[in-house]
Amino acid sequence: MERIFLPAGISGLAFIAMYITLKFILERRVREKKRLEEIVGTSPVPIREVELSVPIFRRVFKPILKNTARFAVRLLPLFDEEVLTKKLVEAGRPYNLSPREFVALKFLLSGFLGVAIYLGLEITAFPVIQHLALSALGGLGGWLLPDAFLNSLIKKRKENVEKELPEVLDLITVCIEAGLGFDGAMTKVVEKYSGILSEEMSQVLSEVRMGKPRREALRKMAERLDVDDLSSFVSSVIMAEQLGISMGNVMRVQSREVRNKRRQRIQEAVMKAPIKMLIPIAVFIFPSLFIILLGPAVIQLMRVFGR
């Protein structure tokens, strides 16, 4: 037994001693590196690491979109840049796309889907006319798909703003009644909430610090989001500021109105639910019921008249 335990004990002590030594050396190097960075400063990050840290969309697809945008705008002279800019702003600037880059994306996606469908149908026995027709449909789908995606982003963003607005107004009301100014109340919203309204109010505060009038910054926020309840709230705040009305009373009334509108929208959605359920009931449930109830009678009739 001693022959077994003695080597095992020596090996364990050697392992513990090696572990303690390596830990001491590594901790010392970490302290020295930290102290050196405090005196000299951090070492510059290699350019390759900086480039690899950028998302692949910005590294690969952004340059392609920029180059394609020049040709796409020439081929599509009727492209309305102002309307598209407004829609991109309402959608929250997805992937930081400019209007021309968005048109280039539609152009590339349309061409890619059209060519991909044509090449995929080459292995089939369809006539050439059907190949071209299906490819044209694929190209049309690729052209319309970014617009559908953009509209869905706008709709979802507006719904999120409508959901966040009552809570945000309640917090602003409480802050104003506690003695804070309107800017201080918006600062509290930025600190306590993380959402679309928090980001927009943070931008409003930044613009106000840079010298832009608060009413103009609020109007820009309402234009960017384009939500009726928010626009009404901004108009009330601007009017209260111009006429010298108590901001607390205005915020209390606005909070109550927004919650009433939210309750009405929920009630409207509940009332529409039974009507929307008629389509799946008529398509999926009624045929099954008819088969179960009338199936045996139909089989019996076929047996009687089939003789």
Summary, kept brief:
Helix content is 85%, strand content 0%. The chain has eleven helices and no strands. It starts with a helix and ends with a helix.
Q: How many strands in all?
A: 0
Helix % is over 70%
Would you list the SSEs in sequence order as H and E?
A: HHHHHHHHHHH
> What structural class do the secondary elements suggest?
mainly alpha
Description:
- Keywords: Cell membrane, Membrane, Transmembrane, Transmembrane helix.
- InterPro entries: T2SS_GspF_dom.
- This protein is mainly α and 307 residues long.
- Among the domains are: 105 residues, no CATH class; 106 residues, Receptor-associated Protein, CATH 1.20.81.
- The chain is 85% helix and 0% strand.
- The chain contains 11 helices and no strands.
- Helix 6 crosses helix 7.
- It is extended.
- It starts with a helix and ends with a helix.
- The model has no long low-confidence stretch (mean pLDDT 80).
Layout of helices and strands:
Layout: H1 2-40, H2 47-53, H3 56-75, H4 81-90, H5 99-121, H6 128-177, H7 182-192, H8 196-209, H9 214-225, H10 228-243, H11 247-305
Helix pairs in contact: 3-5, 5-6, 6-7, 6-11, 7-8, 8-9, 9-10, 10-11
Please tag this protein with its features:
307 residues, mainly alpha, Receptor-associated Protein, 11 helices, 85% helix
